[in-house]
Amino acid sequence: MKKVTLLILLVVAALILGCAGQKETPKATPAETPTATATPEYTLVNPGYLTVGSDIAYPPFEYTDEKTGEYVGFDIDLMTEIAKRMGLEAKFINQRKLGTYVT
Fold first, then answer.
1. Is residue 65's pLDDT more than 80?
2. pTM score > 0.85 for this model?
């Protein structure tokens, strides 16, 4: 019984040491990432704005106020506050319409 326990301990120790001794894998060089070109009227990057795409159909997180037609909810308030702290203005795009802006 002691021999079996000793053998198991040796195998486990060898596995632990084998896994711990691996060299760092070489890091891949960053490949050139293709950039999307958008027409100026549909660009999502505008100076002074934080553009947020969201599906505005999940109350109380985000939804359209029927009286005013404005987007309201927790996520809207959160992103508006984040934009404010960044010194930007939040601009919301309904995700369902996002395909028309980004191709």
1. yes
2. no
Q: How far apart are CA 51 and CA 86, in angstroms?
A: 13
Cα dihedral 58, 63, 66, 69, rounded to 10, equals -150
Structure tokens at 4: 């079996």
Nearest Cα residue to 55 out of 36, 76, 41: 76
Q: How many CB atoms lie within 10 A of CB 32?
A: 5
Question: Residue 20's pLDDT band (boundaries 50, 70, 90)?
Answer: low
Label the pairing between strands 49-54 and 89-94.
parallel
pLDDT for 39: 52
The third-level CATH classification (topology) of the domain covering 41-101 is D-Maltodextrin-Binding Protein; domain 2 (3.40.190)
Structure tokens at 53: 């795409």
The DSSP H or E segment spanning 72 is strand 71-72
